[in-house]
Automatic annotation (TrEMBL):
<feature type="binding site">
    <location>
        <position position="147"/>
    </location>
    <ligand>
        <name>a divalent metal cation 2</name>
    </ligand>
</feature>
<dbReference type="InterPro" id="IPR001130">
    <property type="entry name" value="TatD-like"/>
</dbReference>
<feature type="binding site">
    <location>
        <position position="8"/>
    </location>
    <ligand>
        <name>a divalent metal cation 1</name>
    </ligand>
</feature>
<feature type="binding site">
    <location>
        <position position="227"/>
    </location>
    <ligand>
        <name>a divalent metal cation 1</name>
    </ligand>
</feature>
<dbReference type="GO" id="GO:0016788">
    <property type="term" value="F:hydrolase activity, acting on ester bonds"/>
</dbReference>
<feature type="binding site">
    <location>
        <position position="177"/>
    </location>
    <ligand>
        <name>a divalent metal cation 2</name>
    </ligand>
</feature>
<feature type="binding site">
    <location>
        <position position="105"/>
    </location>
    <ligand>
        <name>a divalent metal cation 1</name>
    </ligand>
</feature>
<keyword id="KW-0479">Metal-binding</keyword>
<feature type="binding site">
    <location>
        <position position="6"/>
    </location>
    <ligand>
        <name>a divalent metal cation 1</name>
    </ligand>
</feature>
<dbReference type="GO" id="GO:0005829">
    <property type="term" value="C:cytosol"/>
</dbReference>
<keyword id="KW-0378">Hydrolase</keyword>
<dbReference type="GO" id="GO:0004536">
    <property type="term" value="F:DNA nuclease activity"/>
</dbReference>
<dbReference type="GO" id="GO:0046872">
    <property type="term" value="F:metal ion binding"/>
</dbReference>
<dbReference type="Pfam" id="PF01026">
    <property type="entry name" value="TatD_DNase"/>
</dbReference>
<protein>
    <submittedName>
        <fullName>Hydrolase TatD</fullName>
    </submittedName>
</protein>
<dbReference type="InterPro" id="IPR032466">
    <property type="entry name" value="Metal_Hydrolase"/>
</dbReference>
<dbReference type="InterPro" id="IPR018228">
    <property type="entry name" value="DNase_TatD-rel_CS"/>
</dbReference>
Amino acid sequence: MLIDTHTHVNFNAFKEDGPDVIDRSLREKIWLINVGSQTTTSKRAVNIAVDFKEGIYAAVGLHPIHLHEIKVDESEVAFQSRKEEFNPQEYRELALNSKTVAIGETGLDYFHIPKDEDFDLVKKKQEDIFKQQIALAVELGKPLTIHSRGTEADPNEVYQDIMAILKQFPEAKGVIHCYSGNLETAKQFIEIGFLISFTGIVTFKNAKETQLVAKELPLDKILVETDAPYLAPEPYRGKRNEPAYVKYIALKIAELKGISFKEVAKVTTENARKLFNI
């Protein structure tokens, strides 16, 4: 058994075959958490989780790129972000559903800040909305699934900014999703009680730093995820990703650590069950 702790079968990339994708995952004994990025996808994540009685859960939140309207191209899927205000009551109601296990995807994204906007003003707004969602998670006793993407010039800055904010909320817990930072920073997140999650990036030949982090971190601090439809692992790189492919991420981590796939599956599943209370 495995748990894909961060996927988006609630996105339009799965509009035609979402139920089939989920069924395929469940047949392979892979559970999943569908993660919302704004109101529509958060509601859809909850509805899907309710429709599937076991093995399918939801996270609800407002992604930082949806605070402004931009065109985003993530290679596998292009989309238009939606300018949305954070509505605490609406997200609280979604979060109170018994199938909602986390708040997110929330966090900071400096990579996609439009060049014609004031960087510092956008950054401040992202921080404010992030803090509101952390407060909601703490209030409801739910973990956070945190997005973090820095600029090309300084990719580590965003991690340090997130760390500084999280330290203001000592009761907060959660996971740094799609981690691509260095080993030292990963250890700092673990020290404040957060887990580190790896996507298909860890299978890429040129992702040496991410592979080093996965190799060196304790297995009991690691989660696995697809971030589908994005970041398909080898041997499906460049194609639409799906939850069933999370096994390739677990296989790569097993290879890097020199341990069995069975051990990686067992421990990462235990980690996910404990964090998300499932």
